[in-house]
Amino acid sequence: MKTFKRSFLTSSLLSVLCFSACGLASEPVTMADIRALEAQLAELKARLISQQVSEKQVDSPPRQPTIVEGTENQAKPTLQKDVRVYATVRPTLGILDDQGTSNIDVKDALSHAGIQAMYEFQHGWTAELHGEWSIDLSNEGNFGRSRRAYTALSTPFGRFGIGKQRPAQYLFIAEYVDIFNHGASPFAYDPESIFFVDNLVTYRYETGPLTFIAVGKFDGEAGDNQADLINTGLSYDNNGLHAAVTYQHHTDYEEDQLQGDSTLWSGALAYQFNNGFYAAVAYQGREYDYLSGDRDGHTFDLSLAYQLSQHYKVKTGYFNFDDGHTQSDPRNQSFDGYNLTLEWLPVDSLRLHVEYLMKSFENNNDFDSISIGFRYDFSTKWQYE
């Protein structure tokens, strides 16, 4: 609009000047007068154009570069890239009365160390590697027996893993009653149940409070040509409550000789109360279809804990293991028992305890022990570019 007005004024001024020069002159107009008038008009026009350019530069600043949202000016979201190194050392000293013989012995309550790396290379897609190895303080402090060794890929469709891992049976059933400072805890679950499984392929999917896990063991050279172990489970976790059921089918081999199959149905229930009380129960019903004969057995673990104060906790449990053999059968290893533990936790990473444990066997002498132990946990994490 401003340019239009200035052009109009310029044309009008020129018209007026021409009219004045030609129509109102009292003397005849010569060619010299016309050329002089044209020169003056040209000079006036140049001044007007120069003034328009100057005003336009003041009214309209130089155009800035266009910024497109989502390109250089937008911060890129951070993707997860970290490495965690951890270790836990758990020596115990106990007075043991086993099979009628008493002794004092240093034991190890499953000390171990590990490294875990996570790389989120795209939103919702994370690669993971995990290695974990035992530290046996009761056997010259040996280091090296693997507990975990796998890689995994987490996706929007679930998590897939290959290698030595925890199966659904431990994650859903045993973990919630495994609260004691002992290498054989949970005491009923321990004798024949699985903790870490090699040659394992796992799938895990979570939606809201529900988690589904399915695993299969594939070791063609040492076991079955197909799956040696199938283990699935479903859990519900919400507001301190855990409830789970699992199914397991296992083809059992001993020194590469087929022993038979076993089928396991299990359930677990745990709850963390607001007053510091914790309760968990786990049950496994097992059917043995062996070449040596069929039998039915079970495991039962009950674990209770109560936070006495900020730094003290008391734990107790009852357990019952039945391997399905009759009492007169020399292979019978069934037992039940209980334990009582007092813990002192001066800081989060340190734990000292004293524990009494008693096992009563159906077909053998009883076992009992009193022990003290120390546990120190260490963990650190680095983020990298």
From TrEMBL:
GO BP term, pick one: monoatomic ion transport
Record domain Porin: where: 83-381
Superkingdom of origin: Bacteria
A GO MF label: porin activity
GO cellular component, one term: pore complex
UniProt topology in membrane: Multi-pass membrane protein
Keyword Ligase in annotation: no
Localization annotation: Cell outer membrane
Annotated InterPro entries: Gram-neg_bact_OMP (IPR050298), Gram_neg_porin_domain (IPR033900), Porin_dom_sf (IPR023614)
Pfam families, per the entry: Porin_4
Cleavable signal peptide: 1-25
Key words, A-Z: Cell outer membrane, Ion transport, Membrane, Porin, Signal, Transmembrane, Transmembrane beta strand, Transport
SUPFAM superfamilies: Porins (SSF56935)
Keyword Signal attached: yes
Protein name, UniProt field: Porin
Lineage: Bacteria, Pseudomonadati, Pseudomonadota, Gammaproteobacteria, Alteromonadales
